[in-house]
Amino acid sequence: MLTKEELQKIIDQFDEDDLKRQGVFGILQYGGGSDESFIRANKEGLELFALQLLKSARDTESILLDTEKKNIPFEYDDNWVDENSDTFIQYVEPVADKQKLNPKSEYKSTIAGKLMPIGCGLIAIILVISVIVGLVTVFNWLF
After folding, report:
1. Residue 94 to residue 85: CA distance in whole angstroms
2. Secondary structure of 21-73 in HEC code, one letter for each residue
3. How far is residue 96's CA from residue 61's CA, in Å, rounded to a whole number?
4. Beta bridge partners of 79
5. Which tens digits make up the pLDDT trace of 111-120?
6. Does residue 1 contact residue 58 with C-beta atoms inside 8 Å?
7. Is 39 exposed, middle or buried (0-12, 13-18, 19+ CB in 10 A)?
8. What pTM, to 2 d.p., does this model score?
């Protein structure tokens, strides 16, 4: 985990004004829902978006301690944002909670699960034999 100072060192390496002049970034949908989204961006646009996320990460602890501020404004309304973008991120809302991972349930094989491949294999063998017998029979009828 990076400290606030380490994040600031990374942020300082970017020339934000130059990136804003050259950057293009947008989040678009290719289908009907938000699960069908993609990012359309050039290198500078991706760096600008990453820079905004780094700034949010840097400020998260102070926002969580502040009782009045509940979110971090996201500088996402400049000229670098694609005008055709479907999603515009206005702010980041930090949370103190950690992700709770549910333990993976172990797969328990059943008798039906074990017999399924054997049954499918037997059906495939029966079909192959039936096709061969049918072809031989048709061949015998014709000749």
Report:
1. 24
2. HHCCEEEEECCCCCCCEEEEECHHHHHHHHHHHHHHHHHHHHHHHCCCCCCEE
3. 9
4. none
5. 888 888 899 9
6. no
7. middle
8. 0.62
